[in-house]
Amino acid sequence: EEEPIARTALVLAEESYQDLKAKFQHEVPRSIPLIVYSSHQHFEQTNVSPFQLPEGVQGFTEFAKGRVVLPYTGSFGEFRHVIHHEMVHVFQLSILEQVYKKHRKAAYVIPPLWFSEGLAEYWSTPWDAKGTMVVSDLVLEGRFPGIQDLWRHNGTFTIYKLGQSLCQFIAETYGEDALRRLYSEVHAADSFERLLQQVTGASTRRISEDWIYSLKRRYYPEVKDRVTLSLAGEERAVSQGVNLKPVAVPDSTLLGGCRYLFLSARTGYTNIYSASYRGSERDVRSVVRGQRAAQFESFHPFQSRIDVSPKGELAFVSKFNDRDALFVFDLATKKVVSRDRFEDLISLSSPAWNRQGTEIAFSGLRGSGEMDLYVFTPKTAELRRLTNDFYSDVEPTWSPDGAEISFASDRTRFGSDGTHNLFLIDTRTLEIRYLTCGPWSDQSPAWSPDGSRIAFMSDRSGSLDLYAVDPVTGEGGRFQRLLGAAMDPSWLPDGRGLLFTGYRRGGFGIYQMPAPAQVVD
Fold it and tell me: Cα angle vertex 142, ends 136, 146, to 5°?
């Protein structure tokens, strides 16, 4: 069942090879082993590398034998991106080996991480809203590093986007070929800074200053047109570190009243926490402790939402041994009510209760690479498959009457580039219709309690903002022009406001904002 994934990987890798052969003006002299797993759970167990692989690692190129190793996660666009990214590393290592053999020296210059990863990103994917999120925040908060300080971000997602931005600036200013020469002429200097000057004709300091100035010109004008996250709504007690996927508790009598849940890695472990709308940091309480027991190995905080039923039952996904399990946790008794694993499904994500609290919709990844929508009835243990194709169908949310489910999918002509749009599926007839369509990513739909609007996040403006769409007419627009990224919208029980994740000052915080009666654009 994994054979189609392997054949797809081969086609994509050959396409990448031809593209990079021209860019690097280089041929890799030996075959490139490509090892592909059908899920991230299987990928994490690889023995190609002796190191433990965190969830954030989407692939790697092994140094010793040049093996490219990556998983298929259900998204064709992301699969193509990661393969192309890793193929850049294959060429980088091959060129360095060739140059070092030809020009024997006592010491070799190793390109810094910002350049090796930045070039791999620049030549494998266009600039995106996540890059804007990271880079604009550093610029507008006055914390942007010069080239000499980029190393401080090594080991983080930030270094990928800073490197991509700088590689793009070098290519636009000094020509695309300058990027190739920084590898082919690596023997010609005793430091990368001097090599950069020899190739571009400008000092590292000058390049750094010009790069930062160009970014200021790009992002400073946004200040006058956008509202900061704190002015758009109230910043909740949780604002530092990584806090994600907020959801309101419908029953105000549970957990001490008027509380919401969210995922956070504030202690080094990822837990599910609760907090009061009007509380302080001291009011944050742990509800489910993760990464301390086999059944709670990982809550997938960046990929999977959580949800609470009207009866106060929390649905979430956690890795349990070799695959994911769907958990139902009673907030009143603080006990696991049910734990279900499904024989054909390796990875699960974003469980969502219907309004009656009787069924849970979620996304499931099969060993064949199909990411489809499913509905599970805990009382009878019945599992029903809603979609059945090779499109990536994720993040379901129920209509109040349970007749439809809105979800994000790459099933458009733009989907092969990794973009997602919103769709509606009739839960009885399984008929699917478009809700949004365009060359952007609309994700994380959340149906309002009165059924009149679906809130979602989108990068259609170049940054991550919150939008709303009418499920009947398809009309809608942006809530507000926010300065900073806004993600993971979740309606309050009364429908008058939303909780969401906001990115500011290098951290993910939980925010609350009133739901505007009218959209901005």
Answer: 85
Tokens of 429: 């007839």
pLDDT 10s digits, 4-56: 999 999 999 999 999 999 999 999 999 999 999 999 989 988 999 888 888 88
**Is the separation of the CB atoms in 487 and 500 below 8 Å?**
yes
Q: What is the DSSP string of 369-424?
A: S-EEEEEEETTTTEEEE---SSSBEEEEEE-TTSSEEEEEE--STTGGGT--EEEE
Q: How far apart are CA 248 and CA 394, in angstroms?
A: 21
Using CA atoms of 320, 325, 330, 331 in order, give the dihedral in degrees to the nearest 10: 70
pLDDT (0 to 100) of residue 328? 97
pLDDT of residue 257: 75
Residue 519 and residue 477 in contact, taking contact as beta carbons nearer than 8 Å: yes
pLDDT in tens, 271-293: 999 998 876 677 888 999 998 88
State what percent of residues in the chain have pLDDT above 90: 77
Residues ≥6 apart with Cβ < 8 Å to 96: 108, 183, 186
Q: How far apart are CA 125 and CA 233, in angstroms?
A: 33
For residue 371, the model assigns a pLDDT of 95
Task: Tell how strand 482-483 and strand 227-228 pair up.
Answer: parallel
The amino acid present at 277, given as its one-letter code, is Y
Rg (CA), the chain: 24
Alpha-carbon span 469 to 454, nearest angstrom = 5
Range with the poorest average pLDDT among 99-108, 256-265, 425-434, 468-477? 99-108
Q: Is the pLDDT of residue 237 over 60?
A: no
Q: Which of 407, 401, 364, 370 is nearest to 384 (CA)?
A: 364
Torsion on CA atoms 168, 169, 175, 178, rounded to nearest 10? -80
pTM of the model: 0.93
Q: How many C-beta atoms lie closer than 10 Å to residue 318's C-beta?
A: 24
